[in-house]
Design a protein that fits this description.
- This protein is mostly helical.
- Helices cover 75% and strands 3% of the residues.
- The protein has 24 helices and four strands.
- It is globular, with a radius of gyration of 24 Å.
């Protein structure tokens, strides 16, 4: 038995070492290469690339633009999403299961699709713009620039605030709310004095997630921003357009992006440390049935905001069935856009699922192993793994793509232009969601359960995979569904690394939008929406849950 235990220890040490090596090759090495390239000018050490960036207002202005739009978008999403989560968990809302599915679909679609849709609706020749002008003679304000980016990001990201706060509200013991009500604290006062403070750790986590998503998004400002340059667009342009074969400037801009997001992350960690506590609801919140005007206002608010957020996707689905001629939509319906989509880019659909599912399988396996190492075998090496796993969480996707492209385009390991580098990038980018969810779940499972199995003759490895992992299933699946829907809608990394053999639905959609072939773009976007919907329904079926929260 002693030899068996020693063998198990060696196995987990080997797993820890292999994961560290993988992170060293596919994360640390590309980042070090990026840093090295950023301080290299004509083969010599120089800070010239950084000087070139900060000496031109065009570049520095992009940082303030991104911070401004990201901060305002985050504030708006919290203002919309937190009350909606409160209403959803506190009251019975008509069609709440459908409502949540629509909310998740809103949050998981590629942001640039929302930008493209709002251009079709509120652009210079948009459907709503033309209709209102013909009806009233009023010219609506421009959808382009700062206003358009803020609109798209706010409606795209408020569902994340809803999902995070919904999960926090489930952990609030109903007796706390009843006690506050008995003391005369109810309604709006209870919401601000009791509910918000109890949810504060989750709200802070959601704020970071939303801000990072808004700050790193490059598809939306690229399509709808026009003259309003944001930092991710500058990163992309710096790497591809500005520098030609010399990628030093693009690397320098990427390093600046890493530093900015790292500072924001550390600030969030500091603030979060002021509000750290745990909750475990013995008696979950019991939903009440509202009546009269209160019922109307609650249902109207939730359905109106979700309907407004889902409107772009609904319009995309509608236009995918219209007859089209380039940028023009003709009278009548047709399946020509789908025929063209399936005929001319046959690889996009199978690639999306082949690359996506392969990446997801690797993410799930690694997340389970890392969760065990972090929670059950806490040492310096495993703490390092936990830290490394969170680095991609705070780095813009375009930076990850640039670092990988620079590191593996030549030399000892050539991956650029292959499907493999797409899978590697997706695993690196999306594994933090599943790791965090798996770690949180494993921390709630007593070690005594595994110890009981070991005392009956089971090995530690067998006890973990046959007893603990099944108990972690819901947490793993919650993180996996988040990883999956972000994998199949990934743009910022994929657009740097893809080629014709690894093109995905998201890339195909973006390509046809940029070419002005809106019918085919709508068809690809609709297929993405259907894939996301099926994923959510399968998750609900497997877990037996009618609700999803993060």
């Amino acid at each position: 038995m002693k030899d068996l235990k020693n063998r198990n220890i060696d196995i987990w040490k080997a797993v820890s070492a292999l994961i560290l090596v993988a992170y060293a090759i596919f994360l640390l090495y590309p980042l070090i290469k990026l840093l090295y390239q950023s301080v290299l000018v004509d083969g010599s050490f120089s800070l010239g690339n950084f000087t070139a960036f900060f000496s031109q207002r065009y570049y520095t202005k992009s940082i303030s633009n991104s911070l401004k739009v990201s901060t305002l978008a985050t504030a708006i999403t919290l203002i919309i999403g937190i009350p909606m989560a409160y209403f959803y968990q506190m009251y019975e809302i008509k069609g709440k299961t459908l409502l949540q599915i629509l909310i998740i679909l809103c949050s998981m679609s590629a942001p640039f699709i929302g930008a493209y849709s709002w251009i079709m609706l509120l652009g210079r020749m948009g459907t709503i713009t033309v209709f209102i002008k013909n009806l009233t003679g009023i010219q609506l304000p421009s959808i382009y620039g700062f206003n358009g980016i803020l609109l798209v990001l706010s409606l795209q990201l408020f569902p994340l605030a809803f999902l995070y706060v919904s999960g926090a509200l489930k952990n609030i013991d109903n007796s706390l709310l009843e006690a506050s009500e008995n003391m005369g604290c109810s309604g709006v006062k209870r919401f601000f004095k009791v509910v918000i403070p109890l949810c504060m750790p989750t709200i802070i986590a959601a704020t970071l997630m939303i801000f990072m998503r808004a700050f790193a998004d490059f598809g939306t400002p690229l399509l709808i921003g026009e003259g309003y340059q944001t930092f991710p667009v500058v990163i992309y342009n710096a790497y591809f357009a500005e520098t030609g074969s010399n990628h030093g400037f693009g690397a320098a801009v990427s390093v600046i992006g890493i530093l900015i997001t790292a500072v924001i992350f550390m600030l969030q960690q500091y603030v979060n440390g002021k509000f750290t506590f745990t909750m475990n609801a013995m008696h979950s919140i019991e939903r009440k049935t509202p009546h009269g005007l209160k019922a109307f206002l609650i249902n109207f608010y939730c359905w109106f905001m979700v309907g407004l957020a889902f409107l772009p996707q609904a319009y995309v689905i509608y236009t995918s069935f219209l007859k089209t001629s380039g940028v023009l939509f003709l009278k009548g319906f047709s399946l020509d856009s789908y025929r063209y989509a399936f005929t001319h880019l046959k690889k996009a659909i199978p690639n999306t699922f082949t690359i996506g599912l392969t990446a997801l399988a690797i993410v799930i396996v690694l997340a389970i192993l890392i969760a065990y190492l972090v929670v059950r075998r806490n040492n310096i090496a495993n703490k390092a793994i936990d830290t490394l796993s969170m680095i991609p969480y705070i780095i813009p996707g375009s930076v990850v793509g640039i670092a990988l492209a620079m590191s593996f385009s030549s030399g000892w390991l050539v991956l650029t232009g292959t499907v493999t580098i797409m899978i590697v990038a997706l695993v690196i980018r999306r594994i933090p969601y599943t790791i965090r969810s798996s770690v949180a779940t494993l921390q709630q499972i007593p070690m005594s359960i595994e110890e009981a199995a070991i005392s009956l003759g089971s090995s530690k490895l067998k006890a973990f995979f046959t007893i603990t992992v099944p108990m972690m299933a819901n947490g793993i699946l919650s993180g996996a569904i988040m990883s999956w829907v972000t994998i199949i809608t990934e743009l910022s990394t994929a657009i740097i690394l893809y080629n014709l053999n690894s093109v995905t639905l998201t890339i195909a959609t973006y390509t046809y939008v940029s070419r002005g072939n809106y019918g085919v773009a709508a068809a690809y976007a609709t297929i993405l929406t259907v894939a996301t919907t099926i994923s959510l329904l399968l998750y609900m079926k497997v877990t037996g849950s009618k609700e999803i929260s993060f």
